[in-house]
Specification:
Blueprint lengths: L3 E3 L8 E2 L21 H15 L8 E6 L5 E3 L2 E8 L14 E6 L6 E2 L8 E5 L6 E7 L2 E8 L2 E8 L3 H4 L14 E18 L6 E14 L2 E11 L2 E6 L12 E5 L6 E5 L4 E2 L36
Parallel strand pairs: 1-8
Antiparallel strand pairs: 2-9, 3-11, 4-5, 5-6, 6-8, 7-9, 9-10, 10-11, 12-13, 12-17, 13-14, 14-15, 15-16, 16-18
């Protein structure tokens, strides 16, 4: 008889709340009155490449598999998996986050990823939408449980994945002091919820826009819609004229906390989302209007740009 084990999401117990698709970015470095220096940027690049080299980070993804109501085997990982996706809020505001269930035999050799204790029996976990959990491990592979668009999925993360093993740093443009731009932040009275698409056509998402970043580039004023990046920083996901040429389809820039309304947009720190490296990301695309007609030849290039 397989014993039952139940687990409910708790951010203190191995949770990885990635808000769709984190970039594994290092802490934003402070800017001086004249902008980031080349030395700052070089340190930023070292930290960024080190974060991407993590054994079970984004470059270790080897599959994305949606869970169904009927228990079934997964590719690349033992056990039988199923999910009750619950339901969204009804008229009274009641919700049901459902649960994912894994049936594992002792002979499957699974371990809990955080504690490395044996994992067997009937295991359940409940996540809120856009949360994820590095849950159980088998050999070099961790099964990440996630919930996207109200549905549960499993992504396998293998520290021996070909993408991770072949990684030697992200190609980048050379440092451009002229693309460290002063600007201003125009906050909204309150956050505005905006729908957006993602790198996975089956997953839709929304985000809260907290204001607009206004700056001058090539003699023209530009505006980009900004999200709360945490700790006072602002996140911008944007298109520009280099996309699908020397850069990926879109990139992300984190802007340090405004000083009053003044900000510095250092496009040398523009980063790829994980979906630029792997087909198994559910990364958010830019909201409507976040498109620059000018080519931003700074920051990260497409991972395969040197081969084009």
């Amino acid at each position: 008889m397989i014993p039952a084990y139940q687990w409910h999401q708790n951010p203190g117990l191995g949770a990885n709340v990635d808000v769709m698709c984190d970039t594994d970015s290092p802490t934003v470095l402070p800017t001086t009155g004249t902008g980031t220096t080349r030395q700052d940027w070089e340190r930023f690049r070292l930290n960024r490449n080190a974060a991407l080299s993590d054994g079970h980070g984004w470059l270790s993804l080897t599959s994305l598999q949606w869970l169904s109501a009927e228990a079934a085997e997964l590719r690349l990982f033992p056990g039988l998996w199923s999910a009750d996706n619950g339901w969204a809020a009804d008229k009274e505001g009641n919700t049901d986050d459902g649960a994912a269930t894994l049936w594992a035999e002792p002979g499957d050799g699974l371990l809990f990823a955080d504690s490395q204790l044996p994992a067997s029996g009937t295991l359940t976990a409940t996540l809120a939408d856009e949360e994820s959990l590095l849950w159980v491990q088998h050999g070099s592979t961790i099964a990440e449980l996630a919930r996207r668009g109200g549905r549960y999925l499993v992504r396998t993360r293998d520290s021996q994945s070909p993408v991770l093993q072949a990684f030697h740093g992200v190609p980048v443009f050379d440092f451009r002091a002229d693309l460290v731009l002063p600007g201003r932040f125009e906050p909204y009275p309150g956050p505005r919820v905006v729908n957006r698409t993602t790198a996975n056509e089956t997953v839709s998402a929304s985000t809260e826009i907290v204001g607009e970043l206004v700056f001058e580039l090539d003699g023209h004023d530009h505006r980009l819609l900004a999200e709360d990046g945490g700790s006072g920083a602002l996140d911008v996901t944007f298109h520009d004229a280099t996309n699908h040429r020397s850069t990926a389809g879109w990139r992300k820039l984190t802007v340090p906390r405004p000083s009053g309304t003044a900000v510095v947009l250092d496009f040398n720190k523009s980063m790829n989302y994980p979906s630029a490296f792997t087909a198994f990301g559910t990364c958010p695309m830019p909201v409507q209007g976040n498109r620059l007609d000018a080519p931003i030849e700074a920051g990260e290039k497409a991972p395969d740009s040197d081969d084009r």
